[in-house]
Amino acid sequence: MPLPDGVKTVADRLSAARLNSYEDQVRREVLWIFSAGATPRIMTLEKQCGLPSVHVREILHRLSGMDLLLLDTTGEAVLAAYPFSATPTPHEVRLRNREVFALCAVDALGIPVMLQETATILSRCAYCGSPVEVQAQPKNLTRYLPADIVVWSPTTEEDGCCSLAQSRCPSISFFCTGGHLEAWRHASGQPAGVALSLLEAFEVGGEIFGSLLAQPEPPSG
Ligand SMILES: [Zn+2]
User: Fold this and answer.
1) pTM surpassing 0.90?
2) How far apart are CA 177 and CA 156, in angstroms?
3) How many percent of the chain have pLDDT more than 90?
4) How far away, in angstroms, is 83 Cα from ligand 1 center?
5) Cα separation values, 55 from 5, 133, 158, Å
6) Cα–Cα distance between 81 and 3 in angstroms, integer?
7) What is the whole-number distance in angstroms between the Cα of residue 165 and the centre of ligand 1?
8) Do 56 and 46 form a contact (C-beta atoms < 8 A)?
């Protein structure tokens, strides 16, 4: 498990949250709407979940308080829900017949695993800006260019000022080579973190996001 110790993922926050069935229904619907290439809004969630808008609004605020998603300033739309962003990021993920944006490099790599479908990730080296392309199936990487892509995962935790989507995600990036990651670290004051190979980052992404839309265990007894 190459993820640095002490880094809490959305999967950790979700399991600690112990959501009730309504909260979990809304959380899942938000992810499904994002995965269809749309932005989740109260009006749509109200219809899809069969819940009154006042209830949907309350639930979204609770989920936002647990940093499971991020609301816009009006509270009417979801700006981000790990791994998705409603606004463009450097990490575009092409799925069958639609495209979505991921909050960071690891989130992008988690999407084919979470949705159990083939994806093409188009991003850029965070140092030189050259294109990075990764094709992935739910269980393996099928093609990637350039050949020596690495992913940077910072160990510094957020300072509590804002969500991880705003604080940590922007620095989880692809680099075209280990050399460009080193050059970027040098230029950025040697931040703490780990370099993951592309395969390691794909495994971390699968570990974090693979369970987010899985069906819950049926109650025992
Ligand atoms: Zn580069």
Assistant:
1) yes
2) 22
3) 83
4) 24
5) 37, 41, 30
6) 21
7) 24
8) yes
Q: Which CATH architecture has domain 85-209?
A: 2-Layer Sandwich (3.30)
Looking at residue 159, its pLDDT comes to 52
CA of 52 to the centre of ligand 1 (A): 49
Q: Report the separation in Å between the CA atom of 94 and the middle of ligand 1, taken as the mean of its atom positions.
A: 22
CA of 155 to the centre of ligand 1 (A): 22
Domain 10-84 of CATH type 1.10.10.10:
yes
Q: How confident is residue 168, by pLDDT bands cut at 50, 70 and 90? A: confident
* Single-letter residue type at 180: H
Residue 103 C-alpha to ligand 1 middle, in angstroms?
20
∠ Cα 107 110 111 (to 5°): 95
Q: Torsion angle of alpha carbons 20, 26, 32, 36, nearest 10°?
A: -170
